[in-house]
Design brief:
302 residues, alpha/beta, DNA polymerase, domain 1, 7-stranded mixed sheet, 9 strands, globular, binds S-adenosylmethionine
Length: 302
Amino acid sequence: MFPEEAIHFLNAGPEKLIVDGTVGGGGHTRRILASGALTLGLDQDNDALAYARDRIEPSGCERIALIRSNFRHLRELLDECRIDGVDGILVDLGVSSYQIDTPDRGFSFRGDGPLDMRMDTSGACTAADLVNTLPEVELADIIYRYGEERGSRRIARAIVERRTAMPFRTTKDLADCIERVKPRRGKKTHPATQTFQALRIAVNDELGALEKLLEDSVACLRPGGRLVVITFHSLEDRIVKRFIRSHSTAEIDRPEWPAPKPNPEYSFSTVLRKALSPSSEEISVNPRARSARLRVAERLID
Ligand SMILES: C[S@@+](CC[C@H](N)C(=O)[O-])C[C@H]1O[C@@H](n2cnc3c(N)ncnc32)[C@H](O)[C@@H]1O
């Protein structure tokens, strides 16, 4: 998503050190490299990194390092490598087309595969573990909070009833169970879409990783360095929007205070006043991109 815009707003170029925290299919990584920048590429998915290593590293380029890691560990990683700051951080959140389109990874109800959904396949907990073991109330809570699914209680109850007879093993198994209690009623989207999103977010602790990266970006970015975040749903976008707002306000004012006070979190300036949305051309090529948003902030000089 946003191939040109992301590179433009990163200010990528020679002598810059740019982190691509979500290598995926390598589209952004290749463009960052092409700008002449030193590039540190991270992905928590072994398959994504193996793909990038096959496609990008053999070009003989010495300006790139690819590391398998969750971007939530970026600050620790830079400390270990004795890198005192970077000029740009890009994260393009969510799942890659490869992950969605590979039934064995268990992200999609379109093909039938194991109910897995781990981006990092060494992770302890799969989607099957969640649906087969969580108490009904916790399951409903996850489906409501991360999927914004209004039928969360009904779906959680159906899951718990079904699993007492036989545990869930496959994506189709779960999708069929949801469809039985949430009929399509002519809607285009599959009734399991929001529940699958919720489980994926929970399995990978996606919002926790995003919050940690945002907090750490203050320490990781050099003055003038850019933070570019591409989100795919409103839960993520809200977190990024609030972070940028709370860190780009010089003073805080409260009705009970006699005068405004300096904001201790003030560390960024906003580059875009509003989030960027995809063009209609991009949406026609990739309808999944409809809800994508790009936000940018620039690290202030301390
Ligand atoms: C939308 S794709 C990125 C696509 C990529 N920008 C491109 O141009 O091909 C998201 C990728 O980020 C990875 N990912 C998601 N959350 C991550 C995290 N917290 N740490 C590291 N990688 C993550 C996923 O494994 C996936 O490969």
